[in-house]
TrEMBL record:
Keywords, alphabetical: DNA-binding, Transcription, Transcription regulation
A Pfam family assignment: HTH_18
Name recorded for this polypeptide: AraC-type DNA-binding protein
Entries under SMART domains matching the protein: HTH_ARAC
GO molecular function annotation: DNA-binding transcription factor activity; sequence-specific DNA binding
Chain ranges of the HTH araC/xylS-type domain: 229-326
Membrane-traversing stretches: none
Organism name: Pontibacter indicus
Length: 326
């Protein structure tokens, strides 16, 4: 079966109480109570069998309720990068799924009416990949409790999610999402690229789902989560010259003990583990896309010696960086 990629774009919305920048916003995502254009968008649907994705980055000073695209023909890979939101189905006041920052899950609403409630936050960012149900079923593992339960619900047309507990967005997932958002291909090459990246996201999600230990932020205050997001940003902004854990803790307003503990709760790995994985993903991208020398890449990513970078790269990927350059 052939799967297409569709990314309709509509203009940015702005209001008195919020400023937003929206990339590849799907026309079927409707903000309740908005103008006539939004009402027209409610009636739009993508052709069956296509892969779509939407990326939203927005600043909210008030709660926002969004009508969700619901169809038994599609499932949704939902990635909450920043902010908090909840999905509700029908008249049920209990959330079907709730998300904090840096969490993701696979959702299926069938034909049920669904809404997403987005909490006020100066930085809200989310990405949703809409995939045909038969595409998902083709790659869904045959065995395993969460997989078989999801399969049965999809075939029965019942709302479902992959995990009751959300999964953590890892550096590797972040890298794939960025590749999707910054795809430079067009035409059939773009369709193939997007399909490959969606399959990779499914693989990473299924792999995480099979792991016994799933990080949880349920015991953390929102201020603690925001501190860890700030810490992550500082880590990535200073890869060339990483600061110590003590300095990083002081910069975000906590101590070293809570930095280590809370960072692992939010991101599912240690500070060093996150930095190392992100470095390696960036290194591979730089090797594939550019003409930079291995030594220059090592320096840009904060390695004092190219030999240390080469050893870390081989340990992470199983082959030397020179293999890509050769």
């Amino acid at each position: 079966m052939k799967y297409e990629v569709s990314e309709p774009v509509i203009g940015d919305r702005s209001g008195a109480c919020e400023q937003s920048t929206e990339q590849q916003r799907p026309a079927f995502c409707v903000c309740q109570g908005q103008n006539a254009r939004a009402n027209a968008e409610a009636n739009m649907r993508f052709p069956s069998g296509e892969i779509h994705f939407s990326h939203t980055a927005i600043s909210l000073s008030n709660k926002k309720v969004v009508g969700c695209f619901n169809s038994e023909d599609f499932a949704q890979l939902y990635f909450s990068m920043r902010g908090k939101s909840a999905f509700r189905i029908g008249e049920n006041p209990k959330p079907f799924a709730s998300f904090n920052a840096q969490q993701h899950n696979l959702l299926f609403f069938s034909d049920e009416e669904a809404q997403q409630e987005i909490k006020p936050d100066p930085q809200v960012e989310m990405l949703t990949v809409y995939i045909p149900s038969d595409f998902l079923l083709h790659y869904l593992p045959e065995t395993g409790s969460p997989f078989s339960e999801l399969r049965d619900n999809i075939l029965a047309g019942k709302p479902a999610r992959l995990r009751k507990t959300n999964l953590t967005i890892t550096p590797r997932i972040t890298a794939v999402l960025q590749e999707l958002l910054n795809c430079m291909y067009t035409g059939y090459c773009k369709r193939m690229f997007v399909q490959a990246k969606v399959i990779e996201l499914l693989m990473l999600q299924f792999e995480q789902c099979e792991q016994d230990e799933v990080p949880s932020t349920s015991g953390l205050k929102q201020t603690d989560i925001e501190k860890m997001l700030h810490a992550r940003d500082l880590i990535l902004q200073n890869m060339e010259c990483p600061c110590s854990l003590i300095d990083l803790a002081h910069m975000v307003g906590t101590n070293e003990y809570y930095l280590k503990k809370h960072f692992k709760q939010v991101f599912g790995t240690t500070v060093f583990g996150y930095l190392n994985t992100y470095r390696m993903e960036q290194a591979r991208k730089m090797l594939l896309e550019g003409d930079q020398k291995v030594g220059d890449i090592a320096s840009a990513l904060g390695f004092k010696y190219a030999a240390h970078f080469t050893a870390a790269f081989k340990k992470h990927f199983g082959y030397l960086p020179q293999k890509i350059k050769s």
